[in-house]
Amino acid sequence: MTGEPKMQKVKEKPKSELGGVVVLDFGGQYTQLIARRIREQQVFSAILPCTASLEEIKQYEPAGIVLSGGPSSVYDADAPKCDPKVLALGIPVLGICYGMQWITHTLGGKVERAERREYGRAHLKVACGSGSEGSHLFMGVPESLRIWNSHGDHVLALPAGFRATGHTENAIAAVEDPKRQIYAVQFHVEVNHTERGTELLRNFLFRVCKAEPKWSGAAFIEETTEALRAKVGHKRAICGLSGGVDSTVAAVLVHRAMGNRLTNIFVNTGMLRKNEFEQTLEMLRDRLKLHVIGVDASDRFLAQLKGVIDPEEKRRRIGREFIAVFAEEAQKLQGGEARGEIGYLVQGTLYPDVIESVSVKGPSATIKTHHNVGGLPEKMPFELIEPLRDLFKDEVRRIGRDLELPDEILVKHPFPGPGLAVRLLGEITREHLVTLQEADAIVVEEIRWAGFYEKVWQAFAVLLPVRSVGVMGDGRTYGLTVAVRVVESHDAMTADWVKLPSEVLERISTRIVNEVPGVTRVVYDISSKPPSTIEWE
Questions:
Q1: Residue 536 and residue 271: Cα distance in Å, rounded?
Q2: What residue spans define the domains of the chain?
Q3: For 511-536, what is each residue's pLDDT tens digit?
Q4: CATH classification of 20-208 is 3.40.50.880, yes or no?
């Protein structure tokens, strides 16, 4: 089995993905949030780089186009641009932040650097309210709103045909040309800090674009299943199954399309949580009735990681070794009773994985390589099937409920594909893995007992390559340090640290120091994403 990797999702676009909104990414930090907010209104949204061709945009038959924010200034020589013909397609356009500045600059208005940057909360005064002469975008909202800004440039002069529909104390904050159906705001309607932002977005979707709310889990399941059947034909597939919500939803979804031609493979890398290999195999086989092969490959993974400290190299080596294991198991299957070519590898890749791993949407930066995206080898023996590649975690959980998966899976905290390798900083050793597994088990137990497990996004331990002096049994110690990380989030794109009660933190710390040999210090991570990421590596 040979071939080049094919990283895209199934090419056929289901009907529910047509007639939605295309978001053109200029590198904004909230671009993915724009897409999520649109999907929350049951309207499909697809993110394309700002450099996407008109043909790529038209493939989605969009009811509307949104131009995202971005860190650049429109007058810079290397400022990101999209095809100006986007504004002449006859499709309603909404520019947000940089998007508003690009529209103004492109159509002959004036944008300059502001004397005073607007960042954070501000008050918007709506200039055109409801009524026959009012703005469709601001229909039904108060004349004064609290908004969230993040920009250093101001629009000083409007293009011909435009009118200002909102101002802050310092700048023009909203403009429109209703005849050409072009609307723009200087603030971020997609963030929770903007009052009535969802209503403004709904006005654009339903009053301006006349979009239909047909994006749903049921439609996704039905149409993805049909597209998969058409794609795979009579070939067979294997699925890299971990027991987490992402890979399990992907496995059950693909099983609907392929039936027994799908074989799931659960690999013990040696970097799973305490007792996870045995418990997960039992659950997948006995409760979900999936055909799962368990492979203990811990020795070979640890051998690959010997002496490796760089986190990106860890992820690359783990990604390559996963593919090697899958290829070997596929060869065994093809040589056994289940004959037929295995041409596909199913993965539970999600949209945040793609965004953080490879800069595929506009000029945004790569944050870290996920083992199942940017960590894959250049040449693979399989074509990838990633049915969840364009979804966020909360969307996957909703689809899992539609597929009637048990709550035990749906509420399970996310676990990184590389496992504890990215929670054990420095070189990976068996001794340190055991230490981390024990500490992590205590964190999860205490979070469960305190009633927080289903209320938070993730709770886990990190083993740091830091030793510090301690005192135990009247003697001096020089032990290891464990960091505890508990965050709340909706989609993993942003996250805040959880303010756990002091008694819960005290129990966690006391138990780890007393029950995990070699650990003498426990710290609590109080950083949010951004600027930090959820995982430490």
A1: 15
A2: 20-208, 217-410, 429-524
A3: 999 999 999 999 999 999 878 889 99
A4: yes
